[in-house]
User: Fold this.
Amino acid sequence: MFSPSLWRSTWAILRKDLRAELRGRVAINTLLLFAITTVVLVSFRLGPLGISRDQRAVTSIAVLLWIAIFFAAMSGLSRSFVAEEEAGTAPLLRLAASPAAVFAGKLLYNLLLVAVLEALVVLLFAALMNLRVGNPGLFAASLAAGGVGLGVATTIIAALVARASVRGALFTVLAFPLLLPLLVVAVGATELALAGAGWSKAWPELRLLAAYVLALLAASLLLFEQVWEG
Amino acid sequence: MSTRYNQFGDMLKLLLGVWLGTVMLAMFLWVPPHEGLGNLGRIIIVHVPTAWVTVLAFLISAIYSGLYLRRRRPEHDDRALAAAEAGLLFSILATVTGSVFAKAVWGSFWNWDPRETSIFVLLLIYAAYLALRSAIEDDERRRRLAAVYSLLAFITVPFLIFVIPRIAESTLHPNCALLATSNCEGVTLGLEGSGAPKVSLLGERKVELLDIQERDGVAIARVEVTEPGATSRAILEPSINQRTGQPVEMPEIGGTRFRLKLERLEGERASLNIEQPGSSGLLRNSRTLLTFLASLAGFTGLFYWIYRVRAAVLGIQGRLAEEGVL
Amino acid sequence: MNTEAVCLEIACLGKRYGSRWVFDNLSATIQQGETLVIAGPNGAGKSTLLRLLAGLEQPSAGTISYRVGKRRISPSQARQILGLVALDIRLYRELTALEHLRLFADLRGLSDDAAISGALLERVGLAERANDRVASYSSGMALRLKYALMLLHRPAILLLDEPTAMLDVGGRAMVAGLVEEQRERGIAIIATNDPRELALGDYLLNLGVTGETS
Assistant:
C-alpha cells in the first residue's frame, strides 16, 4: 500500500496545496483571524487581570484553549476539499491521482494547518491569558494527540461536505458529534498538564486519544474511496 | 395470501396498541411508588426503553449503512434511514423524560451524566445524518455519503461510553453530587480534639460537624451543609443505629433527592457520604420489573413497526422516483 | 504507452438525475483506431456521457466496459489510460503551467523531465507563458494547457468535450492533428456540435432531447 509512487503522489498533492495556500492564503488567514478573535474576546474579561490569574483556573483555561482551537479549525479546515469542488479542479485530481494519495496529501496538509493553529493559540494564551504550564511535555503531548485527531476527523468530514450541494454550516454540524469524545479527553489531558500532573496520571487520557485517532484513521482510509469517487 | 398477511399485520398492530396502553396504565396504577423516589420512579418505565430503542436504532442504521456500501442496494439505505428517523424520535423522547427525571432527582435538567451524554450525542448524530442527507441532491451519492457518515459515527461513539466515566473520575475536583456514577469516598469529620477536621468539602458542598448526640442506641450527627457559593445553608441530622450499623435517618440535601448519610461513627469521628437515589434497586419490586420488561418489549415493537413502515414507504417513493412519477 | 489494442463498449447505458433521465438505453462499441463523435442539442447529455466514460460519475443503468488486449479492466484502472479534456474541468489558478505539468507527472508516476515539459508546452503554444499562473490565462490558453496535461501520459482512450470551443485557428489545427494521431494510439471520443468537428469521426452518435439514439 505504501509504495514509492504513493509517497510521490502524496507529496505532490501536499506541495500543490501548500503552494496554492501560500499564494492565496485563504485558509490560513481564516484560521488565524478566527483564533485571534476568539482569544482576544475571551481575554477582555478573563485575561491578564481576570480569572486567568487564579492558579486554580486550569479547567477554564483548558476549556477555553480547546474552544479557540476547535472553532478556528471548523472555520478553515474544510477548505482543502471544498476548494477543489468549488473551483472545479476535483475531477482533474480524481482522474490523475489514486484516492489513497489524495487522502494522505490532504491529511498531511490539514495536520500542518492544525499545528500552525495550535502554535498560534498557545502563543496568544501565553501572552493574553497568563498561561502557566505545569508539565510542558505532557502539554505538548496532549496538544499533539488532540491535534492529530482533529486533523483526521476534519479531513474525512471535509471530503464528505465537499460532495454535498448545500454546504453552509454542514461541516460543523457533522464534525461536532464525532469530535466530542476527542475534545472531552483532550481537555482533560490539557487540564492535567496545566496543573502539573505527572505522566502516569494522564496516561489513560493519552491512550484513549491514541485509540480514537487510530480507529478514526482506519475507518477513514477504508471509507474515503466511497466518498471521493463517483 | 396478501390479504391474509394484511389481516395478520392488522392484528399485530392492534395487539401492539393494546399492549402499550396496558403498560401505560400499569405504570401509573399497578406499579407501587418507589421507596426512594416515590412517584418519580415510574418514569423509568418509559425512559429506559426509549433510550434502549435509541441505541438499537443506531446499531441497525450502522449495520444497514455498511451493507449498503457493500451491496449498493437502495433498500438497505431505506432501512438505515428509517432506523435513523425512528432513532431521532426516540432519542428526543429519552432526552426529555430523562431530563424531567434529572430535574426532580438531581436538581437540574442536565448534568452531563455519562448516559445523558451518550444519548445526547446520538441525538446530535441523527440530526447531523439527516442534515447531510438533505444537503445532497443526487440519490446515489446521498445514500453513499450518508452511509459513510453513519459508519464514522459508529466508530467514534463507543469512545464516549468508555471515555466519559473515566474522565469524570479523573477531573481535578470530584463532584459526586453531580455525577451519579462517580464513586465518592465521603469525608470523615470530628469534634474538637478528635484529630479529624471539623469542616470539609463533600462534593461541592461545605459540611461542618456541629455535635454528636445519642438517644436509645441511635447516634445523631448535627451537620451544617452549605451549598456551593454559600447560596444557602441548612442543618441536617443524619443518624445511625449503633448496634446494627444501619443508617436510620438520611435527610435530603437542599432541593435535590440526594441524601446525607452517616456511614460510621467512631468515638467523636463521623464518616459522612452522599446517598444517591436510584442506586438502591429501582427494579427490585416484582410488579415494577414486570411492567418494565413489558414496556421494553412494547417500545421495541413500536420502534420495529415504525421502522418497517417507514422503510417500506421509502422503498415505494424510490421506485416511483425512478419511474419518473414523483 | 502500450501497443495493445483497446476497445470500449457501452451497453444499454442510462443516467438519471432525480426523476429526470438525461438519456437511456445507449449502446455503442468503439474499437482501436476509431473516432466517435457524439452530437446533440444542449442538455442532451453529451458532457454527462463523457463524464460517465471517464468514471467521474456512476451510470444509473447499464454498463461501460474497457478492454486492453485480452484483459477487461476496471474503471479505476482505466483512469491510467484515459484522458479527458473538458471546459468544465478547471485548472489550479494559483499554479503555473510548469507546476501543473510537474504535479501531474508526479501523480501519474511519470518522469518530470524539464525537456519533456518544455516540448509539450511548445507543442500547445504555451512555451512563453510557462511560468505564469493559470489565473492570468485566457480560457483558450487554459484549454491548451489541458491538452498539454493530457499529452503527458498519452492516453489510449481520449475523451474531448467541445474540444475547440475556445480555440483560435491554430488551436483547431492542433486539435485536428491530435485526433488524427490518436488513431495510432487508441480511440478518441469527441462531444461537439461544431460542424467542422463532425467530420473528424468515423461514427456519429446523436443524442436526442428525449433520450432515443439514432
